[in-house]
């Protein structure tokens, strides 16, 4: 029986995926295929590479995202995506999908063709960076003369990449709050509208999950809330433990 795990995008909220994986491991659920987008691609690659949960947490904690040396000048983004290659290679030594103990698929958006690209073999580092290159913040990533940005633009929840699996588990960290909220600035309105649109698209895929882990309380954390990583991790872990206690038996029916 082959088990697949889909990890959504979500910026700093993506560390909740590591909490979810910890819960799965404590329930002796062994994943065979990981599909990830954006932050989910980063967590997924480290997990597929055999990296333990504590080290995955440290990867995010030590990324030092907004260090001045990472700023891009006269480029299409504030932060230079390429500087993270050294950071990734320190944790995953081989730049090759085939070197990973688990099967991995990551998504990226091709700006030239306006199509989704799924990477699952060949060089590893650039596809991971491309999948996480949030438009306007990180510089696009060029691979084989094509230009890529965040896979979440077209597929933020890649559960559909797990068709080769008998059981599909989804970890989704972008649930929006359905309550009145005062929006003070224009960018608050734009951000809320974008989040609603994305959530409605992603929600259409939830039925594909044999088990969906969708932690509550994620919306209050922004894409770059890296100071809140311990809290976000714990929310993912606790929610996954509760969900597995209630519905984990459904995985084997």
Strand proportion, as a percent range, falls in 15-25%
- Could you tell me how far the N terminus lies from the C terminus, measured between alpha carbons in angstroms? 12 Å
- Sketch the major β-sheet: 8 strands, mixed
**Average pLDDT across residues?**
88
Radius of gyration based on Cα positions:
17 Å
Structural class: alpha/beta
Question: Helix and strand layout, with pairings?
Answer:
Elements: E1 3-7, H1 15-26, E2 33-36, H2 39-48, H3 53-61, H4 85-89, E3 103-110, E4 115-119, H5 125-131, E5 141-143, E6 146-150, E7 167-171, H6 186-203, E8 211-213, H7 229-247
Parallel strand pairs: 1-2, 1-7, 2-3, 7-8
Antiparallel strand pairs: 3-4, 3-6, 5-6
Helix pairs in contact: 1-2, 1-3, 1-7
Your description of this structure?
- This protein has 253 residues and is of the alpha/beta class.
- 32% of the residues lie in helices and 15% in strands.
- The protein is built from seven helices and eight strands, in the order βαβαααββαβββαβα.
- Strands 1, 2, 3, 4, 5, 6, 7 and 8 form an eight-stranded mixed β-sheet that branches.
- α1 (15-26) packs antiparallel against α3 and α1 runs parallel beside α7.
- The chain starts with a strand and ends in a 6-residue tail after the last helix.
- Residues 66-73 have low confidence and may be disordered.
